[in-house]
Amino acid sequence: MTTDATDALDTTVTDEAVNSLAGTADPRLRELLTGLVRHLHAFARETRLTQEEWERAVAFLTATGQTCTDTRQEFILLSDVLGLSMLVETLNGDRAPGATESTVLGPFHMTESPVRALGADIDLVGGGEPCVVSGRVLSRDGTPLPGALLDVWQADGNGFYDVQRPDVQPPGNGRGLFTADAEGRFWFRTCVPSPYPIPTDGPVGGLLRATGRHPYRPAHIHFIATAAGHTPVTTHIFVAGSDYLDSDAVFAVKPSLVQDFAETDDPALAGEFGVANPFRHARFDLVLERS
Ligand code: BEZ
Ligand code: FE
Fold first, then answer.
1. Which residue intervals define the domain Intradiol ring-cleavage dioxygenases in the entry (predicted)?
2. Which residue has the higher pLDDT, 58 or 95?
3. What is the number of the ligand closest to the CA of 248?
4. E strands within 192-231?
5. Which residues face 239 on adjacent strands?
6. CA 258 to chain centre
7. From 16, 120, 183, 186, which residue has the greatest number of CB atoms within 10 Å?
């Protein structure tokens, strides 16, 4: 057993802690816990972690847990701002060429999106500049995927999700669960999203302030696309030209996900979507890999 700081390089305690895991029945759990213990110990040694710093870290993690509620996930937020969510996503989100790239889920997919008909407006409160989002859900070989499900969620024009402002936004504002038509097409109306700050009134906000970081995310709409026989994709589309595309607080931007929300003045399109000209229009396909 180590007795003082000069013994910190003695690995006895690390070996003992690792050996204590040897009886873990699940081999993957044993591997994960062993790696965690080794890296935590290496971190403490490398930084010469003090007792006071350890206590502050415990208090920070305690406050992070205490900030979580049914509609707030401060631990996911912590993982997001440390880049861990994006790293895990990238490690597991390897896509074949042509398939839509994935990105982080984020902490606001915690309610079921209301089922909506194609063409419905998910902006229930007139929260910003109207726009149409349309496209197709395709298999990687270009085959349309009729009946594909599209779960969509976005913040309102003030940068808040419905669950953050239940007094101002009705439940389901900015959310919709759509079913692609017989040709795999989808379309819905909404408002052009705007950049917004991730929640900063909890421990993660304190971390951002302590590190001089801004809390903003570039404007985006979230999607989960699911179709029979295919691997679902969790992704966003980002608004081309948005602020913060090059400094997303959660490191989630991928160039292939940036889309134009171009102003359109086409009577035929306006008629097709049931909107007044001119309107903003984002058009893109979601491409899934066979599972
Ligand atoms: C979001 O886009 O909803 C989000 C993602 C990560 C952290 C906070 C918010
Ligand atoms: Fe978001």
1. 133-161
2. 58
3. 1
4. 196-197, 216-217, 220-226
5. 259
6. 15
7. 186
pLDDT in tens, 96-133: 889 999 999 988 887 789 999 999 999 998 878 889 99
Report which of 142, 154, 152, 286 is spatially closest to residue 227, judged by C-alpha positions.
Answer: 286
- Tell me the CA–centroid distance for residue 98 and ligand 1, in Å: 25
Pocket probe mutation, ligand 1, options 74, 77, 105, 108, max atoms within 8 Å of Cβ? 108
Q: Domain spans of the chain?
A: 12-78, 79-288
Residue among 74, 104, 238 to mutate when testing ligand 1 (max atoms within 8 A of CB): 104
Question: Cβ distance 183 to 144 under 8 Å?
Answer: yes
CATH class of 79-288: mainly beta
Q: Indicate the SS3 state at residue 117.
A: coil
Average pLDDT, integer, range 8-20: 88
